[in-house]
Amino acid sequence: MPGPERFPAWNELSALARVPQTDTAPAAPWMISAAGLTVDFTKQLLDESVVRALLALAHEAGIGSAREQLFGGAEINNTERRAVLHTALRGDDGAPFADVVSATRARLTRFADEVRTGVYRGYSGKSIRNIVHIGIGGSHLGPELAVEALASSALAPRCHFVANIDGHALARVLAECQPETTLFVVVSKSFSTLETHVNANSARTWFIERVGDRAAVARHFVAVSANVAAAEAFGIDPAQIYPLWDWVGGRFSLWSAVGLPILFSAGPSAFDELLAGARAMDEHFRASDSAQNLPLLMALVGFWNYLFRGAESLAILPYDQRLRLLPSYLQQLEMESNGKSVHRDGTPCQIPTMPIVWGGEGTNGQHAFHQLLHQGTRRFTADFIAVAAPSHALEVHHRWLLANALAQSQAMLLGHESDDPHRAVSGRKPSTLILLDALTPARLGALLALYEHKVFCQGVLWNINSFDQWGVEIGKRLALPIFDQLAGASTEGQDASTHALIAALRTPPA
Ligand code: F6P
């Protein structure tokens, strides 16, 4: 039985979960600060005996040695026989691959500076004013989140993101671009992802049709990939192919050349600060005792909620409009990592693994889904993210924003008693609040690294491989015949629903 239920602490937690929880709000706060973040766990309603048992579970699961394997480059991605070294991208001189990471960062910085200052010119001699980033999943979510979260600097070209194969995504962006002042950044670790391949080909066609010179492609298309041969075959100048390595998972890759739009938009120094913030969280994660270790505590609190309180989802509630893309980013990081049903050795999990991650920015969510959170029947836990200092001067707005964030988490904890059952709010709904002093590159880096290490810790507790994603292959495989059948190929062998839907959708004969 390779799951966490094999450990003595599991039985202790199971017994504690059967004990009715105290009805009173905690008398003392449980807040821990590190790397510029302050995390308030007080509203998680965990008493000391539960915390002790959770820490014992982490110890029995070998979290310390697993962490050293992570940072040391062991092949912990066991099904793909790969190391997991996104931490090496943060630029720690003592990390594995430090030389090639540093050399690549220097290339990226030089290129970003040339584009931003107008030294780099397009085929007609004009400077670049629009960046079109083409990539999906981990080759998209992190860069777009960071570009939107961080202020763009004065020299910044405008950054657009095209991920979906839906032509509306590409068409809308191309309508705002002129070929001679546009740089396309094709980001794909495999350089074989369908969406990116189709989008990049259509963008190249658009470009050539307007410019009339295929040779100009090399000035206006660059690539970030581990598949250099495929990028060269597409027509990318080898000098403009920035590396990705197999020890960087897609959903952990924004710290690499995948983050190029961040250098274009916020600037190379901001990117360096982002890395420094993540490095600060790495150092905290490696050095701190378990009882003060933010990623581990986030992991254990989540584990308690999912496995012993029956929470069916984790709501990510960023109370900062600049972080509105954070739920989508964390959906991939958490659900593509720990949405698994077998242990590392292939045996089926006997306990639930990662639940659904969802969310939306506050205060908008209060007018959309908070009703269910306050009066629904579903169990959940929530992470609030708030930022103390805004980057605007609208003090009243920000004070209301913070007041709402605290009020919503308080309402989830305390509820509201009423003789009218339609107005009663049960309360006792656990939440964590992560407070950033400001949304700087360093704090964003620390926040994202916090979640990366939390995901790692939960994978260790579940004893699952958090770093592969075999489940995404089936859909890709099934779409291939349907693509042809929508254009007229025989649908023999399709299930009744798919057969009927293809018939309804089939392109009218020419
Ligand atoms: O969703 C599957 C996946 O492989 C992700 O893990 C990855 O981030 C994304 O597709 C894009 O992959 P690539 O960078 O190889 O295009």
Structure description:
The chain is globular, with a radius of gyration of 24 Å. The chain folds into 3 domains: 35-84 and 278-468, Glucose-6-phosphate isomerase like protein, domain 1 (Rossmann fold); 98-244, Rossmann fold, CATH 3.40.50.10490; 471-506. Helix 1 (8-17) runs antiparallel to helix 2, helix 12 crosses helix 16 (441-462) and helix 13 packs parallel to helix 16. It is built from 18 helices and 11 strands. It has helices spanning 8-17, 48-60, 63-72, 98-117, 141-149, 167-174, 194-211, 217-220, 228-234, 260-265, 268-287, 294-308, 326-338, 370-375, 395-414, 441-462, 473-485, 496-505, and strands at 31-34, 37-40, 130-134, 158-162, 182-187, 221-225, 241-243, 313-319, 356-359, 381-389, 431-438. 6-O-phosphono-beta-D-fructofuranose (F6P) binds at residues 136-139, 188-190, 193, 196, 250-251, 336, 469, 472. Residues 136-139, 188-190, 193, 196, 250-251, 336, 469, 472 line the site of 6-O-phosphono-beta-D-fructofuranose (F6P).
